[in-house]
Amino acid sequence: MTALWIAAALLVAGFAGWPVTALVFRLARTIDDKADAATAAEEARRAAEDPSADVTVDGTHAETQNVDGELTAPADVPSSADSASLPAPSQRILRGGAIIGVLERLGVCLAILTGQPVAIAYIVAIKGLGRFAELKETPVAAERFIIGTLTSMLWAAGTAAVVKVLFLS
Known about the structure:
Distance between the termini: 12 Å
Largest sheet: 3 strands, antiparallel
Oligomer: single chain
């Protein structure tokens, strides 16, 4: 019966953790979008109140024309210097993350069920070292890595703890 509970815990931790992680990513994106909208609204309010603002915006054109007749790019279009640091649209950030996440959750759950919590440090170290170069280059990837790792580990640890306390004591 113990083997059955361990197998159930591994299945729940490993494979049911993906929707939980996706939900947390969606929640984080919603919070970021609301914060960005609030910041944009505050900047627009400040610009409207600023008597020295000499820029007029025509909603039908993609560019902005100031009083001197010079054309400038709209604020939401990144400059060529900014776009060099962003990944190309066809380039995926943190490739293989779903498979790595399943393996991570299985490892964390198994480490807790077998009473070897030190193994969790090895899992985190291997995952961090494997992604180091990509995380160093892309701040968005680093944030996604942290959110995903914490969510996965908490799900796996919680699943293992519940099974261990309720069914394996």
